[in-house]
Design a protein that fits this description.
This protein has about 160 residues and is an alpha/beta fold. It has six helices and eight strands, in the order βαβββαβααββαβα. The chain is globular, with a radius of gyration of 15 Å.
């Protein structure tokens, strides 16, 4: 099966998760990793499955991903899809809200798998203002990774 994993990543965490998903799917599929930073509106017509991954910052999903989904929603609804978000929200209910805020109701209903896959604070990649904000909100001033590797495994199994 030809699979596109289309993602947005500011600091590299969503990209790391996308690469992990790709590695797990490559055994029996042809997988293409596509960054919306490099290709704003990739052609998905040649893919049977499309997996979308977006970061969530302060409760807000990536605008680049939302724009891509709006432009391509009808084509995405004709594909087998998986949807995930990466973020550091600790509360389960809010994680679900962040996932639902990242993608349209139609895309969520159509998806064969959806997941909140954790995230990271990478202080070495943040600018001064971002570090201050994260320190104030999350009460930490060191890099922290909370990628949920088990959730990634379960997400891939659902696909």
């Amino acid at each position: 099966m030809k699979i596109a994993i289309i993602y947005v990543s500011k600091y590299g965490t969503t990209e790391k998760v996308a690469v992990s998903i790709a590695d797990k799917l490559k055994e029996s599929n042809e997988v293409a990793l596509i960054s919306l930073k490099k290709t704003a509106n990739p052609d998905i017509s040649g893919f049977e499955m499309v997996i979308l991954g977006a970061p969530v910052y302060a409760g807000q999903a990536s605008k680049k991903m939302k724009t891509f989904c709006n432009k391509n929603e009808q084509a995405l609804l004709q594909k087998r899809t998986g949807l995930f978000v990466c973020g550091m929200e600790p509360m389960r209910e809010k994680r679900q809200q962040e996932l639902e805020g990242a993608y349209s109701e139609e895309l969520l209903k159509n998806a064969v798998a959806t997941a909140f896959l954790g995230g990271a604070f990478l202080f070495e990649r943040m600018n001064f203002i971002e570090r201050i904000i994260i320190h104030k909100i999350a009460k930490t001033n060191v890099s922290v990774s909370k990628i949920d590797w088990n959730a990634i495994e379960n997400f891939v199994k659902k696909l």
